[in-house]
UniProtKB/TrEMBL annotation:
Keyword check for Membrane: no
A GO molecular-function descriptor: transferase activity
Residue stretches spanning the membrane: none
Name of the protein described by the UniProt record: Glycosyl transferase
CDD domains recorded: Beta4Glucosyltransferase
Ranges where the Glycosyltransferase 2-like domain occurs: 5-96
SUPFAM superfamilies: Nucleotide-diphospho-sugar transferases, TPR-like
Classification of source organism: Bacteria, Bacillati, Bacillota, Bacilli, Bacillales
Key words, A-Z: Transferase
Pfam families the UniProt entry points to: Glycos_transf_2
Length: 364
């Protein structure tokens, strides 16, 4: 029988930690919690679930803390979660089944990570991460911030999802940026991955010009992970758009085609440029292409399903309306509504297109 150690690092998580542990405690065989300096009731709450609570002095290094947590595990496999993660009931059942059936030859199991959803339950941002790993392989976390678990060997992809549920509690939103800035001041050498994530932090803090500089440095290394490279093209497009340069925003989106076959996100970005400039036939081409594209089930990069579902259909409704093709416009709006059945914009479109089609029918 497989056994699982849950390993977590936490700090000031009193609003979410009980929710997380309640969703997983009856499935795992051991809970290891490493606290990096909580000043609230986090450790008190955790004590009702486990006695294996360890203090770790925070040294601006997430990998160091996670590796310390992994070192305390004693079971066959290690599962890691963050305090604002949960397993929904369907995924709890899937994990129970996996635990019973998992072959001991498996070194790592990837799981989906659902980072956000819309009000209709559609996942709007997700990725896949190595989530359950064999303890005896002694896999290590790499990188002080935006760390990743370096795995190899027999890896399988599961359909289990970990769901991220944010809370209203205060968080140190500038922490990661400060870590990178301090490393920069200290003269540390940045890996390509560091350059990419530092640029992301700069962009998130609206330092767009410096973000562009670091994104370009990342691309010029020609050593980044392909999914980070493609994501960078979209980030560069966003930065140029924020700075008011629509042409460079378009060129950044087109640049993605230099690295890989078309992705739905960039088809929508390019389509929007032509829609804005009233080139509706060209916009239609790109939005229709977006609908046709999908990613393989083992895709590990960031993914927003909106770009291949309701969004291009909604934009196609706009395009067909502009050229007077109301029947096609209505069809695409109805398809978009299937994903977002109470969307006010789409419902308004529905009423508008029905009136248009009735007018056309009365004139025939």
């Amino acid at each position: 029988m497989n056994s699982i150690s849950l390993c977590m690092i936490v700090k000031n998580e009193e609003l979410v930690i009980e929710r997380c542990l309640t969703s997983i405690a009856d499935i795992v065989d051991e809970i290891i919690v490493v606290d990096t300096g909580s000043t609230d009731r986090t450790k008190e709450i955790v004590q009702s679930f486990t006695k294996s609570i360890f203090d770790f002095e925070w040294i601006d290094d997430f990998s160091a803390a996670r590796n310390f947590a992994f070192s305390k595990a004693t079971q066959n496999y290690i599962l890691w979660l963050d305090a604002d993660d949960v397993l929904l009931e369907e995924d709890r059942n899937k994990l129970k089944s996996l635990k019973e059936a998992l072959s001991p030859t498996v070194d790592s199991v990837t799981m989906l990570y659902h980072l956000s959803s819309d009000e209709y339950g559609n996942v709007t941002f997700s990725l896949r991460r190595n989530r359950l790993v064999k303890r005896e392989r002694a896999f290590r976390w790499i990188g002080p911030v935006h760390e990743y678990l370096e795995v190899y060997g027999h890896v399988i992809n599961s359909d289990i999802a970990i769901t991220h549920l944010s809370s209203d509690q205060d968080s140190d939103i500038g922490r990661n940026l400060r870590i990178y800035q301090n490393r920069e001041i200290a003269g540390e050498s940045f890996t390509p991955r560091d350059l990419f994530y530092y640029a992301n932090e700069l962009k998130d803090h609206r330092q767009f010009e410096k973000a562009i500089d670091y994104y370009e440095r990342f691309l010029h290394t020609e050593k980044g992970w392909i999914e980070d490279i493609i994501t960078t093209c979209g980030k560069l497009s966003d930065c140029h758009h924020e700075l008011g340069n629509k042409q460079l925003a378009l060129e950044s989106s087109i640049r993605s085609l230099h690295y890989a076959s078309p992705r739905a996100e960039f088809c929508c970005r390019i389509g929007y440029h032509f829609l804005e400039n009233h080139h509706y036939d060209t916009a239609i081409f790109w939005y229709k292409l977006a609908i046709q594209l999908d990613l393989p089930p083992d895709y590990m990069g960031f993914h927003n399903p909106s770009y291949s579902t309701w969004l291009p259909h909604l934009q196609l409704a706009v395009c067909y309306d502009r050229i007077g093709s109301y029947m096609l416009a209505n069809e695409h709006n109805e398809t978009a509504l299937a994903y977002r059945p109470e969307d006010k914009t789409m419902l308004a479109n529905q009423a508008y297109f029905r009136n248009k089609l009735q007018e056309l029918e009365s004139q025939s």
